[in-house]
Each structure stands twice: as structure tokens, then as C-alpha cells.
């Protein structure tokens, strides 16, 4: 069901140009990446729009990766945590200094509220392990889809690349095969105006896949795969997503180039052993808890994921802090305020910071969304 404010008959008004899919969870913004929803492009313009968007996203991602590398970040798509614990004052908003500014009302209204259900990706962690031709193992973190089989599960087999990677997978690349049959794990990539559930169903029914790995190709991580159109009813196989860097690694290994930069070219398609698994996060892990109250997320909770940094909190905890302060309770990234003079200086300061360390396309998009 569409949320309040969305006309269910006007499905074009819930299109996210960044995620390239419908979002039915919020009347104004995508609850995955925070982009303002718009009218879906027509079939005649979708191809050129996708091409332009992909080039723009790739440039932005490369700049982002370079920035994180200079800051000592890891290879997880640029979202490795810098702060290891919440600032002390986040635990007691009343104890902060008198010069604190509240987050702007417009910003608070735009931040999506996400209900946690049984299959929520916030409650689970995924892992993909691949072996190259020298038997070197690559262990990759993955996001678990919020549809299909529920964790825990574990599958081992051979990974093959779908053809094409984007769009409807109608075949898999030919490879040398083992002497005995092994489960097939199909690798696809998001995009092509095709939902994740449809990609997984095609892989299951037409390619005989036992599991699907989806490579991300946008500057959004972590990414939540949902079935907003409720198409996954017959789905019996799991689907996990890896970030952009790890997606390139998988393609490189499948093309026999080991630790190379990856790509879609190459003729030496080798057999690549792969295992994937998913399990519920331990209640003691930071990813499964609110940094303000330290309580674990539970089914039925409403959480807020800040679009500027992707940190997630209970809605009540976030609002208690953000109605008095304009910083993320976890990493202290400054959010917009209703004080024009202060906010002008904040934007100037942050623009200088990002220009020195590399652009941050995602945060800039939100600034444009709020202020034009």
C-alpha cells in the first residue's frame, strides 16, 4: 500500500532516479538513498537517462573512494565508520552547550522513518567468500534482501556472471566445469529498470540458480533491497548485494584477473568457487543497535537513517537529539538548521572541507533538495 500522500494510481510519482526503482515507503523521498522522488521517465528517455546517470555516479564514486582512501578508509564503498562510539553529550542532550542549534524542521520532515520488520536488513548480516584461481580467498560483506528466504542460510557453489549483467539475465557465461555438478550462484547487477525480485526470479526459473549476488553500481551504501511491488512470492533462493568495489573484485576474479580492477571484458572465464551466508546480527554488534540509547533494534521499532551519513537510530532517540542539535549523534556531521546566518557559514565550511578531501555527491544532493 502506498503511504499517505501518494496516489496509488500515479506510480510515476514514486520513482527514484538514483536507485532506478519505485519507492512506496515515503511520499517525498527515497527511504534507501534519500533522493527526492519524481515522475518515472518514459521508455524513450530511460535509456539515455540511465547512461548519463551511470557516468555521473561512477565519477562521483571514484572521487569519494579517493577521499576515503586519503582519510584511511577501507574498501567497503566509502562507508567505513570513523567514530567508534557516540559522543558523550549524545547520551544527555540537556547537558550540551547553550550554542547548540536545532536541526531544521524541513530536514527533520524529509528524513525517512523506516519500520523494522522480521526480514529487515538492519537485523541481519551477509557474507560472500570467493576463491580465485590461486585459491586466494576474498571475504566480502553483503547486504541481505528484505524478501525471499529468511536467514540463517549458507550456500556453496560456483559463481557465474549473468548475460547481460544489467537487465534480464537470459544466459550465463560459459565456463570450464568441475567433474561434478555444483550449485550455481548467479552474479547480476542492479539497474535496467528491473526490480531485484524480478532479477532473482528470472535467475531461479530460467537459469536454475541456487542463489543470486547483486553488484551495486550507485554511490549508496549500505543499500536496502526491498520488494515494494510484492513480486517475490514464488522466490525460493536468496539474494545478497555487495558494494561497488567488491562487485568489481568479483568480476575480476571471474575473468581470471585475480586482484585486478575488474570489468566486463576478458575471455578467460574460470570456475570460481563461492559461498554465501546470512545470519541474524548479534545483539552486541554496533550495526544492530542505536548509538544513542545502546539498545538493539527490534521488530516493530521505527528508526531514522540520516541521509548525510547513513547512521541509524531509534526515531525517538534521534528526535530527542536533533530537535536540540544539528549534528549526527554518532559522527557529528553537521545537518541544516533554521538559522540562516549560521547555516550559510556551515555550508561554506562543509563545501571547503569536501573540496579539499574530495566531493561528496550524496550529501550535496541533499543540500540541493533542502535549499534549492
What would a concise description of this structure say?
With 372 residues, the protein is α+β, with helices and mostly antiparallel strands. Helix content is 25%, strand content 18%.
Question: Would you kindly provide a written description of the structure presented here, covering whatever features stand out?
Answer:
- Residues 1-12, 54-84, 93-98, 176-180 and 259-267 have low confidence and may be disordered.
- The strands form three sheets. Strands 4-5-10-9-8-6-11 form a seven-stranded mixed β-barrel. Strands 3-12-13 form a three-stranded antiparallel sheet. It has a two-stranded antiparallel sheet with strand order 1-2.
- 39% of the residues are buried.
- The chain is of the alpha+beta class.
- The two termini are 30 Å apart.
- 25% of the residues lie in helices and 18% in strands.
- It has helices spanning 43-70, 105-110, 196-206, 244-254, 315-322, 340-357, 361-371, and strands at 15-16, 21-22, 113-115, 124-131, 137-144, 153-163, 171-172, 184-189, 211-215, 239-242, 272-280, 302-305, 312-314.
What is the fold's blueprint, element by element?
Blueprint: E1 15-16, E2 21-22, H1 43-70, H2 105-110, E3 113-115, E4 124-131, E5 137-144, E6 153-163, E7 171-172, E8 184-189, H3 196-206, E9 211-215, E10 239-242, H4 244-254, E11 272-280, E12 302-305, E13 312-314, H5 315-322, H6 340-357, H7 361-371
Parallel strand pairs: 6-8, 8-9, 9-10
Antiparallel strand pairs: 1-2, 3-12, 4-5, 4-11, 5-10, 6-7, 6-11, 12-13
